[in-house]
């Protein structure tokens, strides 16, 4: 649990950003998400309708031949934002991502998949190989030569 004193979203960013990505994998459609997917993205900014329904805010968006309705509301604990997505999907070679650029430093995350029966453990950091101080000094000396 993140303390209430910590701003979870970095400044100048927003959560609940729907992003449509091209799905042209190297191997298998819909299962093989390659790193280059990040460069092919369309932010779905426009809402067709925003309304209140009881305690929920309902946002409807259409894109391509598809439609998504999001119901956003606070859970009973009043600390958890619930986002219930209903998607009428008619796209091909694309996938939809709900982006939250959280400001939390961790090396791994666990995410549930659509069936809710499985979880995916995923490394979150793209780490460069470790270069120790001795090797950094050698590299520096080579640059000076």
In brief, what are we looking at here?
It contains 1 helix and 9 strands, in the order βββββββββα.
Question: What does this molecule look like?
Answer:
The protein is mostly beta strands and 145 residues long. 8% of the residues lie in helices and 38% in strands. The chain contains one helix and nine strands. The protein has one helix at 133-144; strands at residues 17-22, 41-43, 49-53, 56-63, 66-74, 81-88, 94-99, 108-112, 119-123. Strand 8 (108-112) and strand 9 form a beta hairpin. The model has no long low-confidence stretch (mean pLDDT 79).
How many H/I helices? 1
Radius of gyration over all CA atoms, rounded: 20 Å
Q: What shape does the CA trace take?
A: extended
Taking the alpha carbons of the first and last residues, their distance comes to 51 Å
Reading the helices and strands in chain order gives EEEEEEEEEH
The overall strand count is: 9
Helix content class: under 10%
Mean pLDDT: 79
Low-confidence sequence ranges? none
The portion of residues forming beta strands comes to 35-45%
Q: Major sheet, described briefly? A: 4 strands, antiparallel
Whole-number tally of structural domains:
1
- The spatial strand order of the largest sheet comes to 3-4-5-6
Backbone structural class: mainly beta
């Amino acid at each position: 649990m993140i303390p209430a004193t910590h701003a979870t979203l970095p400044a100048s960013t927003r959560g609940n950003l729907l992003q449509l990505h091209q799905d042209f994998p190297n191997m298998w459609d819909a299962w093989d998400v390659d790193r280059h997917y990040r460069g092919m993205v369309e932010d779905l900014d426009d809402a067709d309708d925003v309304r209140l329904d009881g305690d929920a805010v309902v946002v409807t968006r259409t894109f391509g031949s598809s439609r998504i309705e999001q119901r956003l509301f606070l859970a009973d604990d009043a600390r958890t934002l619930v986002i219930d997505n209903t998607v009428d999907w008619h796209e091909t070679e694309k996938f939809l991502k709900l982006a939250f650029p959280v400001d939390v430093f961790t090396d791994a995350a666990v995410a549930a998949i659509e069936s809710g029966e499985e979880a995916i453990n995923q490394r979150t950091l793209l780490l460069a190989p470790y270069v120790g101080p001795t090797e950094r000094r050698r590299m520096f000396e080579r640059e000076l030569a």
